């Protein structure tokens, strides 16, 4: 699948880390990506590729003036949702009780971005494409396949995202997925939502990136050998086998070998 992505669909992910080169080494080794620190005019932003197509971004945590943030922001993967009008979406965000964390900014001719928090506290990005649609390859080994919201108030989250983007929500229609909700765009499932009640106590609201892999257990082992940690060891579920890991700098992510007749995304 390639873009353009329909509004409301996760279209890109990126990671802000204290040590950019270490993150590049970890993910390139783990998933077979290619990536290097980018040019100064883009703040060194790395667009990682797989089979020559963009799959994710990695950047060094820094202030706009190039200084090191204090305190350092959380090391997390940010999911970006596509929009065809960033300005109108941001107005809807504030009208619906969300918070604009980073206002709209131009990214050269590539597009425009912003970062928001929903009313339940989960942080997510918005992307209005220019010449760059987003991920150029998905649903394959080493590429993004799914994005998931964890929230303490599923009803409030569903109302918010439906108010700011053309998405609907519906209960997942599969055995063993009781309580799981799917976001849909044009009737197609594009992301998931689960309650923080099902997570370890103290888990903050989040958007999680899932990567498709051919062998979850070998990826889990490789990640731990490289200094990562295991949050949820490999386990089987109706849509396949998955694990939740962190990279050596603490960023959580999930890996899945999706075996459902229709992959999650």
Describe this structure in words.
- By secondary structure, the protein is α+β, with helices and mostly antiparallel strands.
- The chain has helices at residues 20-31, 86-95, 154-164, 216-225; strands at 10-17, 46-50, 53-60, 77-82, 99-107, 111-117, 123-129, 144-151, 168-171, 181-185, 188-195, 206-212, 229-237, 240-246, 252-258.
- Residues 261-265 have low confidence and may be disordered.
- It is globular.
- The strands form two sheets. The protein has an eight-stranded mixed sheet, with helices on one face.
- It has two domains: 10-129, 2,3-Dihydroxybiphenyl 1,2-Dioxygenase, domain 1 (Roll), CATH 3.10.180; 144-258, 2,3-Dihydroxybiphenyl 1,2-Dioxygenase, domain 1.
- It contains four helices and 15 strands.
- The longest helix is centred in the N-terminal third of the chain and has 12 residues, at 20-31.
What would a concise description of this structure say?
By secondary structure, this protein is α+β, with helices and mostly antiparallel strands. The protein is built from 4 helices and 15 strands.
Question: How is the topology of this model organized?
Answer:
Layout (H helix, E strand, L loop, with lengths): L9 E8 L2 H12 L14 E5 L2 E8 L16 E6 L3 H10 L3 E9 L3 E7 L5 E7 L14 E8 L2 H11 L3 E4 L9 E5 L2 E8 L10 E7 L3 H10 L3 E9 L2 E7 L5 E7 L7
Parallel strand pairs: 1-3, 4-7, 8-11, 12-15
Antiparallel strand pairs: 1-4, 2-3, 5-6, 6-7, 8-12, 9-10, 10-11, 13-14, 14-15
């Amino acid at each position: 699948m390639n873009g353009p992505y329909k509004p409301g669909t996760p279209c890109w992910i990126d990671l802000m880390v204290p040590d950019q080169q270490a993150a590049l080494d970890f993910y390139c080794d783990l998933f077979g990506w290619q990536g290097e620190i980018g040019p100064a005019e883009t703040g060194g932003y790395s667009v990682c590729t797989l089979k020559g197509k963009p799959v994710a971004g990695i950047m060094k945590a820094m202030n706009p003036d190039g200084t090191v943030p204090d305190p350092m922001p959380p090391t997390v993967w940010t999911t970006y949702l596509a929009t065809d009008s960033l300005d109108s979406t941001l107005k809807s965000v504030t009208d619906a009780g969300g918070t604009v964390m980073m206002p709209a900014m131009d990214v050269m001719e590539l597009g425009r971005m912003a970062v928001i928090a929903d009313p339940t506290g989960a942080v997510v990005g918005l992307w209005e494409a220019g010449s760059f649609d987003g991920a150029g390859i998905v649903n394959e080994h080493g590429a993004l396949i799914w994005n998931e919201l964890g929230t303490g108030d599923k009803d409030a989250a569903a109302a918010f995202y439906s108010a700011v983007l053309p998405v609907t929500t519906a209960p997942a229609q599969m055995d063993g997925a009781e309580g799981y909700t799917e976001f849909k765009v044009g009737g197609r499932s594009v992301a998931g939502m689960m309650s923080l009640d099902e997570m370890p106590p103290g888990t903050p609201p989040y958007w999680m990136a899932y990567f498709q892999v051919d062998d979850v257990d070998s990826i889990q082992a490789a990640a731990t050998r490289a200094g990562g940690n295991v949050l949820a060891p490999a386990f089987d579920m109706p849509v396949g086998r998955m694990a939740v890991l962190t990279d050596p700098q603490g960023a959580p992510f999930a890996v899945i070998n999706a075996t459902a007749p229709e992959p999650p995304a």
